[in-house]
Amino acid sequence: MHGDMVPGLLVMDERAIILDIISFLLCLVAVVSNGLITVALGMQWLLRRVLSPCDKLLISLGASRFCLQWVVICERIYVFLCPKATPYNPVLQFLAFQWDFLNAATFWFSSWLSVFYCVKIATFTHPVFLRLKQKVSGLVPCMLLSSVGLSTLSTLLFFIGNQSIYQKYFMRGLQSGNVTGDAIRRTYEKLYFFPLKIVTWTVPTIVFLSGMVLLIVSLGRHAKKTFLSTSGAHDPSAQAHIKALLVLISFAILFTSSFLSLVLGAAGVFPSEELKWKVVAYLCSAVHPVILLASNPRLRAALGRCCS
Hints:
Elements: H1 7-48, H2 53-81, H3 90-121, H4 127-169, H5 179-227, H6 236-267, H7 274-295, H8 297-307
Helix pairs in contact: 1-2, 1-7, 1-8, 2-3, 2-4, 3-4, 3-5, 4-5, 5-6, 6-7
């Protein structure tokens, strides 16, 4: 009967609403925390006219995450206000263009931050590593420019694909739900967009994990030596290394979870769980800056100077 409620659909609707609320709250946390990092380091740059190489990477990452979350929030608000809008609506296309660039930039900034930490902090004695340790600070501008350049390239490739679909799908007068139009979209998604997404996300992830694994191994060895010394776990150096290890491991877990959720969502694995993948993807942008603010005395000090 038309008046009867379908329990399965009701549960799905309730779960979708809950996941939407969670994702929205995570976006707000990400906006606030990344905004605080960006403002703190930005004010420091304005006052001192200089930023350390590490802070340049941090402010770039914070700013890209801040803008990315606003794009997500705007997209959710627009879809809520215009539920019948198609994916190729001009507004959604504009937001998608921004999301593609900011998401790729966030991946690359995170990856270069991982590399910077690894080279600066790890204690490997290989001559190539020692030479790189001396030069890595001067390479930060190149890291930032390469991040912007690679993100722009991938965004343009996404834009070209979307324009091609638009011309074949809408310029021929095909309507949403049309069998031919849906077939065109599925073909592009399978043969063009999905491989492009995999390359765009996987390359910086490999760079990120390589730097993180090397750094965690180095810090782990050093912490073990300090921990087994006469002073043991009460030694401030050992405690600092353990704290640093926990922060790095949490960053690696969050980043990897975000990457896997994006890949699974793009692959269409468990389509009914798409909202869950989005929530997991937002976790890194929301939780990592909070961990940074809680564990980084320099960031807290910079933030304190801004508030005073």
